[in-house]
Design goal:
This protein is α/β, with parallel strands linked by helices and about 250 residues long. The chain contains seven helices and eight strands; from the N terminus they run ββααβαββαββαβαα. The protein is globular, with a radius of gyration of 20 Å. Keywords: Glycoprotein, Glycosidase, Hydrolase, Signal.
C-alpha cells in the first residue's frame, strides 16, 4: 500500500465552534467528527462522456493544487495538537465528478456567459468518513467548478480537522475591481480569484498613469500613452484574457 501524503493533507473545516475555512460559506453544510486525509495517489475521476476542455483544465488545476499547496492551519502551533487524530484518520483515495442525469455538458465558458437568471452554480459535495471516494455532482459544469473550488478549500498541510460529510450549494456571485497590472499579473488575478468564487472582474484598463490598450482607430493612444511598447494590451491579448476569464468563471 502506498504511503499517505507526507504532509498529511486533511480537512481544514472548523465549523460551528471554530472559524470556517470555506469562502463563501455554502448555503447548506453538515459536518461530522472524524479526521480525514488524502491518499498519496489521490485521483479525480470524471464521469462525463466527452467533457469540455475547460472542465478538464479545471480538474487538472485542482489536482495540481492538492499535491503542491503548502497552506497550513492558521492557528497557534499550526495544528500540532491534531497529530494524534491524523494517525487514525480515514483516507480518501478519490473524488468522482459528474453531472445530474439529463444535464448538458456545456463548457464552463458557455455557462459563465449565460444570463444571471439562467446561470446555475449549485453543486453537492459529499466527503464521507466511511468510504474511500468523495463525490461531486452538479447541474452544470460551472457548478462543478464551484464544487472543485470548495473541495480545494477543505484541505491543508500538516494536520487534520474533525469533519465527516459536507453537502454544499452556492448560487450567489461576487464582483472584483482591478486596476490594470502587467499582463501576466492580470492572468494571475483571473486564475486565483475563482478560488474564493469571485465571478465578475471589473477591469479599469486606464486607471493607472498610462493608456495601455491598443485601439485600432486611434493607434497613437497606446503608442504615446503607454509606459512602453512592451506594456500594451493588443486586441489578441484582450481576446485571450476574456476567453481565459470565461473559462475560469468570470463574466
Amino acid at each position: 500500500m502506498a504511503p499517505i501524503l507526507p504532509f498529511a493533507l486533511a480537512f481544514c473545516f472548523l465549523f460551528a465552534q471554530h472559524a470556517l475555512a470555506l469562502w463563501p460559506i455554502p448555503s447548506s453544510l453538515s459536518s461530522g467528527t472524524s479526521a480525514i486525509k488524502l491518499f498519496v495517489d489521490f485521483a479525480i475521476h470524471l464521469d462525463i462522456p466527452h467533457p469540455p476542455a475547460d472542465l478538464l483544465s479545471a480538474i487538472s488545476r485542482t489536482r495540481t493544487l492538492l499535491h503542491s499547496d503548502t497552506f497550513e492551519r492558521l492557528v497557534l502551533g499550526r495544528a500540532s495538537a491534531d497529530a494524534q487524530a491524523i494517525k487514525s484518520a480515514h483516507v480518501v483515495t478519490s473524488l468522482t465528478v459528474g453531472l445530474h442525469p439529463g444535464s448538458a455538458a456545456r463548457s464552463i465558458a458557455e455557462e459563465t456567459t449565460r444570463s444571471l437568471g439562467d446561470k446555475d452554480e449549485s453543486y453537492e459535495l459529499s466527503v464521507p468518513d466511511d468510504a474511500s471516494s468523495a463525490t461531486l455532482v452538479a447541474n452544470t459544469t460551472l457548478g462543478l467548478l464551484r464544487g472543485l473550488t470548495t473541495f480545494e478549500q477543505l484541505w491543508y498541510d500538516s494536520a487534520a480537522i474533525p469533519c465527516r460529510t459536507l453537502f454544499a450549494r452556492w448560487t450567489r456571485c461576487r464582483g472584483s475591481r482591478s486596476v490594470t497590472p502587467p499582463r501576466l499579473t492580470c492572468v494571475w488575478l483571473v486564475l486565483t480569484s475563482p478560488r474564493v468564487k469571485l465571478s465578475v472582474l471589473y477591469w479599469h484598463i486606464i486607471d493607472s498613469q498610462s493608456f495601455p490598450l491598443e485601439v485600432g482607430a486611434f493607434p497613437e493612444l497606446s503608442a504615446k500613452g503607454a509606459y512602453s511598447a512592451e506594456e500594451v494590451y493588443t486586441r489578441e491579448d484582450i481576446q485571450q484574457i476574456v476567453q481565459y476569464a470565461n473559462e475560469a468563471s468570470f463574466h
